[in-house]
Each structure stands twice: as C-alpha cells, then as structure tokens.
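quick one before i forget lol
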Amino acid sequence: MNQRSNNEWLEALREPISDEALNDLREILLRGLRAALAHRVNADLNAITEDFAQEALLKILDGLDSFRGESRFTTWAQKIAINVAFTELRRRRWKDISLQDIVETDEGEEYTPAILTDPDAAPELTVTQRNVMEIVMGLIQEELTERQRTAMLAVLQGDMPLAEVAQRLGTNRNALYKLIHDARQRLQKRLLETSGLRHEEVLALFEEK
C-alpha cells in the first residue's frame, strides 16, 4: 500500500478518483473498523465492516473539503468510519423497540428507573436517592405533556439516540431539542418549588459513591 501525504490523498480522491487510492483507503478503514468493533458485534464482522466502510467512503468523498489537515488524512477518515459504524449500531439496536416499550414495563406499568432497584447502590444513599427519584418521576408524570414525557424518558432514561426519537415522534432534531429543553426547564422549576432542590444538587447526589 502506498504511503501518501495528506495532499496526495486529497488529490487522489478528487475527480477523477484514483481506484488505487480508493481501494487503499477502504483497506485502512476496514482494519480500523474490525479493531474497533471486534468485541461489540455478534454478527459477521467482515460483512458488517464492509457495509460500514462503503458508507464511510461515500461520506469521506463528499466531505473532502471539510478536511482541515489538523491530523493525518487517514486518521480523520477512520474517525468518520467509526462514527458511521456506531451510529448505525445504535440505530439497529432500537429498530425493534417502540417508544412505548421504554415508557412502560411489559405489564403496562409506569417506567421505574434502575436506580430505584439497583442492589449495588450505596446503602447510605438508597433512601435519599429513592425519595428524590420518586419526586422527579412524579413530576415527569404530572407536569409534562405526554409528548414531553415520552421524549424525556426515551432520551434521558432509555438512552435512545435523538435522531431515532425524532423519527419516531415525526419531528426533527431541532424541534426535539426544544421539546426536551422546555420539559427540563419545567421540571427544574417544579423540582425547586416542590423539594427545594436544584437540579445540580440532584445530579451530585446520584454521582456520589
């Protein structure tokens, strides 16, 4: 495989694209993807990295003008490939899970944060954490609209990617950002009024070990 400078890579990948350079870059991306995903996927590693590499190549070719030369071209390209892979893996993870699965249990009951049933939680914090979480979850159920509640639980508790939640709710990322921002502002205001706790104090409580 030829060793190329950043400028040589850029020149070779612009029209007319060098087949040799494209193949060399593909091999570099495949090596990086296999190393990054070796312990993260159960499917055929070769097949899945081939798909990710092809998608990454398209993004790289479309984004050549955004390369600033602050690192090696191949390092920049591999970061794009890894981002493509992780984004797609997150999307696949949620493909067969509905928003209702996140906000309710199998029995149709309200969602209960893991912290409330975590046997490893520090004993001296469990009661306090439980009380605070019950307040927070009560506020989520009582103070937010159904749409705000669904978005908050999906993103903040269920860890579903923003893009996936936006698609499920029939909206876009910007509108979802505003929906969650408004919901958090409402919760912070009511939390302070109800318990006297600021959201920073709540976060600090659950960061304690």
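fyi Confidence is low (pLDDT under 50) at residues 105-119.
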